[in-house]
Amino acid sequence: MDNKLAGEKRLLQLNELDEFRLSAYDSARIYKEKTKKWHDKKILPREFAKGDKVLLFNSRLKFFPGKLKSRWSGPFLVTNVHKFGSMELKNEKGDVFKVNGQRLKLYHEGNVVGTMEVIHLHPSSSS
Q1: Is residue 65 predicted with pLDDT exceeding 90?
Q2: What is the mean pLDDT of residues 111-122?
Q3: Predicted confidence (pLDDT) at residue 44 exceeds the cutoff of 80
Q4: Residue 65: is the preceding peptide bond cis (ω within 30°)?
Q5: What is the residue-wise DSSP string for 35-95?
Q6: Distance from CA of residue 74 to its chain's centroid?
Q7: 56 burial class (0-12, 13-18, 19+ CB within 10 angstroms)?
């Protein structure tokens, strides 16, 4: 009689465990959906046209951080725009390569503010 009661209690515990597991899966799914919706809302659509000048994000600099080193290189010229956001870029040397459009931002050319004068200082020879 006692074994039968223990068996029923164990079955109830297993059923409760299954319910906890299923509710945990549901909670995780709901959390992931909300996070994805928030993330997708924050992404700005980037559209580039042929002939635009763009800057390319260099993600490899994260491994070799330089405090004042810019992670953007360029400017590059957009030569072709493909489906799903891939772009063909051309550098100053004329090399053409493909990149993901999410790694690009528009380059705004500006006027030169002023000229820079460089003065090299040499130690005096008088002693």
Answers
A1: no
A2: 76
A3: no
A4: no
A5: HHHHHHHHPPP----TT-EEEEE-GGGGTS--TT--SEEEEEEEEEE-GGGEEEEE-TT--
A6: 18
A7: buried
pLDDT band at residue 66 using 50, 70 and 90 as cut-offs: low
CATH annotation of 53-106: 2.30.30.140
pLDDT value at 56 more than 80? yes
Determine the Cα–Cα distance for residues 91 and 28; give it in Å rounded to an integer. Answer: 45
Q: Pick from 96, 46, 54, 103: which is nearest to 75 by CA?
A: 54
For residue 121 the two structure tokens come to 């200082």
Encode burial over 73-82: b for 16+ CB neighbours within 10 A, e otherwise.
ebbbbbeeee
Determine how many CB atoms are found less than 10 A away from the CB of residue 87.
23
Burial class of residue 54 in the structure, from the number of CB atoms within 10 Å of its CB (0-12 exposed, 13-18 middle, 19+ buried): buried
The C-alpha atoms of residue 53 and residue 75 are separated, in whole angstroms, by 6
Residue for token pair 């992931």: 32
> 89, 99 in Cβ contact below 8 A?
yes
Averaged confidence pLDDT in the chain: 84
